[in-house]
Amino acid sequence: MSNYGTTRHHPAAPSAPKDRLTDYHTTLFRRLSWEGTVPLEIRVDPNELPANSDRGLECYFMQAPRVSYLPLLMPEIRRFLMDVVFDEAAAKVLKEEDWWFECDDGTLLKWHWPIGLIYDNHSILSTVRPGTALSGTMATPLRLILHLASPPTDKLLLSPSAEACKQAFMGQLKEADFIRWGNTKRITGLRKVDQDGLWEGIKEHNFDDYWRVASKVTPATAPNRPQSPGPPPSSVSMHGRPPSADAAGPSERDGAYNVRSVPVRLYLPDGPVIQDLVPPILDDGKSPFICDVSTDSSSGTPHTLSHLLSTHVPLLFPPRPPAPPPSRTNPHPHALSVPELAYPLIQGVLTPPESEMAWLGACLAGADGWLNICIGISRK
Amino acid sequence: MSETATSEATARPLPSWATADVPDINEDALKALETYKKRDPSKVVVRFKAVGNAPIMKQNFYKITASNRFQAVIQFLRKELGWKAGDPLFTYINLAFSPAPDDTVSNLFKSFCTDGHLIVNYSTTAAWG
């Protein structure tokens, strides 16, 4: 996986943008996130079903992409209801702009949250509600109730149109860009057709279309990682600089470990949402790259998920007590294990605490650029 | 199994063995959640700046409770400007982006404050949309 080799040795790779070679693992995890879907069960509020509806079929099941949004699912849901459930005359008087969703536990569903976040946020909520099935929560459909009238507009905040959702999405994308770089030049610098292309990619659920543009604004996991071997000593003298310096130039400056901060939000069951600056490298003066002279720019250790959690929600993720000093009888002591109170879910996946925030931000963020971490509560 | 059968099955209450009378949730975790749910009573300074043709406010510094949502800031601004429902108003942070209306003032302040203020730009037309 030597992706930091220069392109001139690989003329057969014309599709790679000139300054950005996305490595295999980054693409893999981006694709896995993109292809993730969640099961939804959509049922029209039985009290609101119009006369002559087919009551036996008022429930619709679908697998929705995590990166999609409710307004984008509406055409499919509407088609089902119009074709199968509603009587033709009744369907004519229904106004789609009055439709809104609620979870079966009474939570309103926001139009502008990604489906995957809605699902995960609901699944962590179920970890603090007694009586909810524990095993298999991940495969359980999220049960939604579709109301056909009287939307609580003040609580839904945004109108249900796809256009309003797109504007909210662009806002999130720019906010993420601002968090990373202190400005929104990368997004505003995109041509209109490219900006629209991001949204079209989500709408059509097309990974390639979305990432063709998104790779210009999302930081790559830089090749300049501790694992990167330095250039072989013999190559240095040839042209005065090692060949690897060519590839490392632009892509490293835009790299995930060089952002000012990673766009992250922490979701606790039933609120609140915590957002703070999350630098990719902790300014702790420790260099983890002891043997690697090529990484002298790094003056700290990578910010890990475990560090983020133990600093922002320490009551749920108490710092682990240090291991006792080694002794003759116990030369490799382990820290005392403490019962786990909570666990982090990213894209519905239980995430290892040693994961680095910069990597998570580059590989597991949602399509809007945000890394959403949902905190579930462990059972005894 | 038909879709109807599934929905009927799930609508029924769970069997007794599945509902715990005393939930097996760690008390410490629940206490921790309660702590984090407490609203932050502190206030932050929000500074409103008009963009384009938007009317300038006589007073443009306000202390706003940090736990408020940005939506509350928008509503406050509309009231101060005497805007009627439906009158267009676009709000931005740092001349750069529109935050989600459900984000809190506290979160926005932590990430975007400038010289101790959260700068909110407002405009009657989409400026950086």
TrEMBL record, chain A:
Question: Where does the protein end up?
Answer: Preautophagosomal structure membrane
Which stretch is the leader sequence? none
> Record's InterPro entries?
Atg5, ATG5_HBR, Atg5_HR, ATG5_UblA, Atg5_UblA_dom_sf, ATG5_UblB
Membrane topology listed for this record: Peripheral membrane protein
Where's the Autophagy protein ATG5 alpha-helical bundle region domain? Answer: 163-219
Assembly and oligomerization: Conjugated with ATG12.
**Name of the molecule in the record:** Autophagy protein 5
Provenance organism: Mycena belliarum
TrEMBL record, chain B:
Q: What is this protein called?
A: Ubiquitin-like protein ATG12
User: What UniProt keywords apply to this chain's record, in alphabetical order?
Assistant: Autophagy, Isopeptide bond, Membrane, Protein transport, Transport, Ubl conjugation pathway
Annotated Gene Ontology cellular component terms: Atg12-Atg5-Atg16 complex; autophagosome membrane; phagophore assembly site membrane
Q: Which SUPFAM superfamilies does the annotation name? A: Ubiquitin-like
Q: Does the keyword Lyase apply?
A: no
Organism expressing this protein natively: Mycena belliarum
Q: Which InterPro entries match?
A: Atg12, Ubiquitin-like_domsf
Lineage, top-rank taxon, reads Eukaryota
Q: What binding partners and quaternary form does the record give?
A: Forms a conjugate with ATG5.
Q: Which Pfam families match?
A: APG12
Protein's GO biological process? autophagosome assembly; autophagosome maturation; autophagy of mitochondrion; glycophagy; piecemeal microautophagy of the nucleus; protein transport
Coiled-coil boundaries: none
Localization annotation: Preautophagosomal structure membrane
